[in-house]
Amino acid sequence: MMSLHSIIQADLYRITGTKKNWFGISKNLFKPEFCYLFYLRCVNYHYKKGNRIRFLVLSLFLRFYSIRYGYEIPYQCEIQPGLKLEHYGGIIINPLAKLGTNVTLYRGCTIGSNRRGKKAGAPIIGNNVWIGANAVIIGKVVIGNDVMIAPNAYVNFDVPSHSICLGNPGKIMHKNNATEFYIDNPI
Fold it and tell me: What is the CATH topology of the domain spanning 75-182?
């Protein structure tokens, strides 16, 4: 398990492109995307460690910034290092969703669950995935590695690695290095 500091540094590197110490981290807390991620990571870390007082105090900050910036990303989500939120606001993630490393989320995207049927559950998203503005990923689906979900796409099916998914209903096009030039500063 990575330390809290290294996870936060990985997220900051995805946003700024430079490795920073704690002073550099505190200087970037004024960026809405990083500020929210900072508190999300801290709350998740102290939740797992069982430190109830820090968890409760940091949860209040996380709730405040959730309302202020329009993110709904629960601390229970399994999110690997290197998450990048582009443009603040309107990002919703189900608490049961799992996100890999180097995932980029744009404004208005939804990663939600389905409560019934064959696809009941939440998505599992692989590494190096770019999800465009207003894209919707619903149900127990697996999004492979190196996948681009185009803006306004609706995905309720599995998407294989090295592909692009676009449209509503979503259509898959195979492409090697699908996220090349889209994943900034991968860790």
Answer: UDP N-Acetylglucosamine Acyltransferase; domain 1 (2.160.10)
